[in-house]
Amino acid sequence: MASSTPTDPASPQETGFPRSVGRFFQAVALIVRQALTGGGAPRRLDGLRWLYAPDALAFGYALRTTISSLIALGIALWWELGSPQWAALTVWMVAQGTRGKSIAKARWHMFGMVVGILCAFVLVGCMPQSPLLYIFWVAVGIGLFCFIGTLLPGPATMTNYRIHGMRASGFTYAIIALDGAAAPDQIFQIAMARATYITLGIVVETTISSLFQYQLGSRARNRLAANFVEALKGAVPALRSLLAGDRRAVLSSPGVFSTIATMSDQVEFAEIEMGTHQHEGDHARAALAAITVLMSRGLELGTLINVPHSDGPDYQQLAARTASFLNDLPTRLEGEQPINPVLADLAHLRADSRQLATACLEREMVAATHPPVDLALEVGLSRQGQVLHKLSALLDELSLAIEQFEMSRSTQPHDQFHYPMRSYRDWRMAFYNSLRASVTIFCAGLIWIATAWPDGLFFMMFVAIVCALFSTLEKPALATQSFLHGTICVIGLCCALDLWVMARPSVYETLALVLAVPMLVGGMAFAWAPLALAAVAYNLFLPILVSPMNEGRLDEIMYFNTALPLFLAMMFCMWMYRIFLPVDPNGLRWDMRVDILRRLRRQAGSARPMSAPEVIGRNVEGFVRLSGMGADNAFVLERYLGGVLSSMTIELNLLRLRSILERGALPDDANRPIRLMMARMHRFSGRYGGQYGRTARAAGEAVAHLALLERSETNLSVRVEMLSALASLRVIEAELRENEAFFDASNPYLDGAFS
């Protein structure tokens, strides 16, 4: 008799048909994997997570906007409007991820619509029978809107809704003016129809999005606090390295400044969501700006530590405690944790730093006034005192930042604090943006007139829309390239919808069901940053290419007569942005250097120098522009980032020297070298016939002269002022010396355009 064996539950004898089914599915899985990977390892599909595993907020945005768009489309069809697709398009143009952004964009979009309608009225009324002149003024009008938009506050991005107001003016002006060119006697009806579509879309989107909001004010305040903590997390590693004297740590964290600028621009949206507020947004902006000053203070400290005999044992011990405090600070500020223990620990650090700085000064006074004088000991004590003084200033700035942070997350009765948004106008860039848009639109109009293309009106209209949207961006060629990708996707999808699917629905409910999935996909793509611009094109042109109507359907002739001008318009705009006044990063960086030298001269010698907040704002803007600009050579970009931070540090120290001179506490012998250095800086051009360094040498001579005076000074208050001036002068000298390649404007600085 055969021996008994354990029964294998997976054996074919026991499983029969289920085993065959299992093998079948395993074979299918193997075939699919080989088809996807070519027989290699399984492919990573992280690039499609936005589609098959979207974030809850992204999916909520897509669902909310899809519902709003379909409702707006349904109402427009119910009212039997002539072009109901514009109502759905407006919803996608206005809808944003947060309530504050949506409301801000809706307001500026409505403002832009009114301005565009009025300008279109004027144009059609003035020259309805002059085709070439008519197209010229269409181009000039959109160019003027781009010019004004470039000068408005905020970054040149798609999320700057002040600029969006001018963009809305541009494409509203173009659409109404071009539609009215064929029927100038119907311009009022055309304009009112467009205004009805846009208003309907805005009202529906605003109403529906308000239904999806819960505890909006508290969540907005929490977001302000989270923004500060996030920015602080990025700054802490660099600050800890600067405490140890590593000045290059700042260059490895340029994203900190981009984060600060982005979050500062988003404060206004949180203010909208909070409704009635007590300047929490102003405190949030001030707290974020204080982090930038912290980085500058850290760079000053790192500069002084590198001076020989500066980091004594007292400083090393206090720096270690400060680094430990900074390391734990972001965690202690998260959530609803009380702020008092944090401020108490920081107060102990500040008190110890002041006490150590005072003790160091007392020992220096004893060494200087009791012969025999130990010169080496006195110099070492003086330098250690300056480092401790700078560390105390850094801790004071950190305390200010935390206090502003606390005020931003809690209502302060009778608060009158105000920290406005700064506006820095670049007239040259505004002119280039305006000229680029005007020439592109005028050339499109010439093509239309020269070819007598029956559908050239659509071609020119799409060109005008793209120019109005992208001419104010810093990289319009790359933006239109992404826009082209989205356009190709939507053209392919709408080909299937128009020629196959859309011929069957006979009621609105079925139409909405057909459009829901494509719109939902577009919304989720927009919420994923790498696809945002492509998704904008997809979402905007989907309603246009579908063109739902109460009477009839879009046939293949109408579809191709719309899709072809759209595709050619995208190609034409991308080509024009690349050949006519293309954005040159090397030239922009060169202009930035020249502007920095101009600001240094102003800070040193002008009767009205820039204030500290303006200095911080301008340099943070420079950081953001450089980070977004990129460079083929990482060394060049790194040095430019270091040069911008160095210039901010010099400008702030020039303000401190001016304040010391205005107080009049220093004797004339001490004032003279400072004034000579400031006069030299006032003539600072960066070009010395190949001899760079006069201003740096003037700062070094002022340091040497002031150091001699400080050793023999017996008045304690005067000595404190001298030490403060000495610290600022040493920082200026070191920054000019360390960043010679940046500040020497006779050097092309490795930019290919100037080498």
From TrEMBL:
Q: Which Pfam families match?
A: FUSC (PF04632)
The family database entries (InterPro entries) matched by this protein are listed as: PHBA_efflux_AaeB/fusaric-R
Major site of localization recorded for this protein: membrane
- Localisation: Cell membrane
Record membrane topology: Multi-pass membrane protein
User: Does the keyword field hold DNA-binding?
Assistant: no
Membrane-traversing stretches? 58-79, 108-125, 131-152, 430-450, 456-473, 482-503, 523-546, 558-577
Q: Which keywords describe this protein according to UniProt?
A: Cell membrane, Membrane, Transmembrane, Transmembrane helix, Transport
Name of the protein in its database record: FUSC family protein
